[in-house]
Write a structure and sequence with these properties.
By secondary structure, this protein is an alpha+beta fold. Helices cover about 50% and strands about 15% of the residues. It is globular and about 55 Å long. The relative contact order is 0.13.
Length: about 240
């Protein structure tokens, strides 16, 4: 997927999130983010869009603080949210591939990092908003493979799963070209490809992504080996 694909996804997923929020009460609980209702989810995602947009527009070289924002008095929440998403897409579209500014994980270019990260974050929170009011739509195979790959690279940099005890988890997408082996412990490592592991899960890329993001359990998926590995994951990984 290229930058243009990710920018299109940001716009499309933001609109779907807004429509999902409008489809039911804003105080409905969000299953994947149990501390939030839909209003808090919209505010969070809108704030992330504005924070990222500030980094991109200013070509900031250091991480800025994140000061929570809300719509001004009399401004509709969803209009405020849509405005932030539109501004983010415009800001990212103005970046040339050679420009470099603050990013917190490797990527071919800074523009690619922010476009991909914001597309994936927006799409997952779209799923969250839909799930608050009923059944949520899954992810296309290419999107899910790319998003899961990015999430595992983030996990490798930031997560600690001490109850993993060095055990390994093999994730195998049955509908696309995606396999990963994750070693769980005080340090987490990820290798792309096929290998034997203490626990293996075979499923569609969409279901694997939702599993890795702790948005669903393993029910109905093909699971082999030590299911305690999945317990360790659920206990230590959050988004």
């Amino acid at each position: 997927m290229d930058v243009g694909d990710h920018l299109t996804r940001i716009g499309n997923e933001a609109e779907l999130l807004a429509r999902a929020a409008a489809a039911g009460p804003l105080d409905a609980r969000v299953p994947g983010c149990p501390d939030w209702d839909v209003e808090a989810l919209v505010l969070h995602t809108g704030n992330v869009h504005r924070w990222a947009g500030r980094i991109v527009r200013g070509r900031l070289q250091e991480r800025p603080s994140r000061e929570p924002q809300r719509p001004a008095e009399g401004v509709d929440l969803l209009a405020w949210f849509r405005e932030g998403a539109t501004e983010l897409v415009a800001a990212l579209g103005s970046v040339s591939p050679g420009e470099s500014f603050w990013q917190w994980a490797p990527a071919p270019t800074t523009q690619m990092f922010w476009a991909r990260r914001q597309a994936n974050e927006t799409s997952m929170h779209r799923w969250d908003a839909q799930s608050a009011h009923g059944e949520a739509d899954g992810f296309a195979t290419d999107v899910a493979v790319d998003a899961l790959d990015e999430w595992l690279m983030i996990i490798e940099r930031n997560a600690r799963i001490p109850t993993g005890g060095g055990r390994t988890l093999h994730l195998h997408a049955t509908d696309g070209d995606g396999e990963w082996v994750v070693s769980l412990g005080d340090a987490v490592s990820v290798e792309r490809g096929h290998a034997r592991a203490d626990c293996a899960v075979r499923a569609s890329a969409s279901d694997l992504y939702l599993l890795a993001m702790n948005r669903r359990g393993a029910e109905g998926l093909e699971v082999f080996g030590d299911t305690g590995v999945l317990d360790a994951w659920r206990e230590n990984v959050s988004f």
